[in-house]
Write a structure and sequence with these properties.
This protein is of the alpha/beta class. The protein folds into two domains: 165 residues, Metallo-beta-lactamase, Chain A (4-Layer Sandwich); 250 residues, Ribonuclease Z/Hydroxyacylglutathione hydrolase-like (Metallo-beta-lactamase, Chain A), CATH 3.60.15.10. 22% of the residues lie in helices and 32% in strands. Strand 22 and strand 23 form a beta hairpin.
Amino acid sequence: MSRSRLTTLTERVQRIGYCGLYVDLVTTSQGTVRVGSMPDIAKFLEEHGFREEIVVVPDWEVSLAGDNRTGEEFILWQAQIRGGLCKEYVGQRNNLDQLHHHLDRIFPYFFDDKRLAIVRKNWLGNWFGPRPAEPQYKKGAVEVRCDKDNILITDEGKGVYDKRALIPSTNSDDDIESLLGTIPRDRMARDGLEITPVGCGNGFSGTVANSLIRFGQYVIWIDPCGYPAHTLARHNIHWDDITHFLFTHNHEDHVQGLTACLQRARKKGRRLNLLVADSVFRILVDLYSPLFPDIQDLVNVQLLIPGTPISLGPVQIESRWNHHILPYGTVGLRISAAGRCFGYSGDTKYDEAINAVLNREELTASWFAPCDLVFHEIEFDNPNSVHSHWKQVELLQKAVSGKVLGYHTAFLENSPFELVKEGHRYLV
C-alpha cells in the first residue's frame, strides 16, 4: 500500500492523512491522544511511530473515502498480540456504545486450544476502556470535551486542540470525483475468466486481500478494500466499473470498503449488487445501520448459499463454509465460466490433521480439484495460528492439479511458496 502522510498542524497536533481521510494525534501531559480512526490506522500509526493511550471517538461520519470508525478492530488485535495497557476510549456515550457493540460482535471470537471450535474471549474488556465525556473527560491535567459538533482538548488549562478549527478546506469527495475522471472506463466484455488481485496483504501489513473477477460484462469485487477509488486507480481500474460486490465474512480487513461503497451508492442513487451469505449480511446490517439507516434501500442482495451453486448469467459461483473464527461464517469460493474455474479460499484454517477430525469434505483439498487456479490464504510464521500455514498449503498444492498461489500475507521477495502478484492479470 502507499505510504500515509504525516503533517504538523500546530506545536501539539500532528495529522496522519491518507486518500482523503485523516486522524489527529495530540501531544499531552498524559501521552498521545488520537482523535478519530480510519481504515488501516493501526498500520499508519506504526509507520509513523505513534502509540496512543487515549482515543477520542467522534460522531460516525462517512465520505467516498470511507468512515471514521473502521480501523479499531486491528488496533485491538495489535493490543491483544503485543499486550500493554487498556486504551481509554473517550466520547459521547452513544458513540462509545455504538463502537463497543460493533467490536463486541466481531473481535472476541477465536479458536479453542485445539483449533476445532469457536470460543468467545474476554478480550474486549481487556483492551477497550469506555470513558464517557459527559460533559467532559479528565485525566490528570488533560480535559477532553465532546460537544455535538466539536472536540476540544485542554492540557494544564491551555487549549491544545480544537477539531472545528482544523477541518481541511478541501472536500475529499470532490478530490475523489476528480481522480475518477482520470481513470478510463473498461466496458470490454471478457470471453475468459480474468482475475486481478488488488491487494494480497492482511490487517497487519500491505493492502488487505481483495480481488476482481471479470467475465463477460460482470465485474465481481471480492472483499472491497478501504479507499476504493484510490486503491483501484493504482491498477487503472475505475470504481464504477464494478458490477457486483462480494463479501466473504465480517472481519474488518474484509469489509474495509463497505461504507465508502454504500456512500457512493447513496450519492449516485443506484444500488450496490451484493453477493453475500445470509448470516454475514445480517451482521453487516446490524453493524452499519447506525451510519446507514437506509442500508436496505441501497443494496440488491443475491445470497450465497454454501453447498448450492448460484448463477450470474454465464458465471457460476459455488461457496462453502470455511473453518475460521467467526460464528457467523466465512465463505470460500469457486467461480466458473466458459469451462474454466477459479478458486478463492477466503480466510480458513487448512490443516490436514484438523480436517481429519472435522470430517467435512468441503474443507479438504478435493474441493479445489475442479479449479485451474486457486488463490489460497497463507501464513508463514505460526503453524498454530488461525490461518493456513504454508507447509499445509504446500500439501494442498500437491493434491490439486491447478496452480495454487498464496495471498493474505506480507509479501516475501524470496517466498518458499509462490505468491499472488498484486495488479497482475491472471487469465484462466
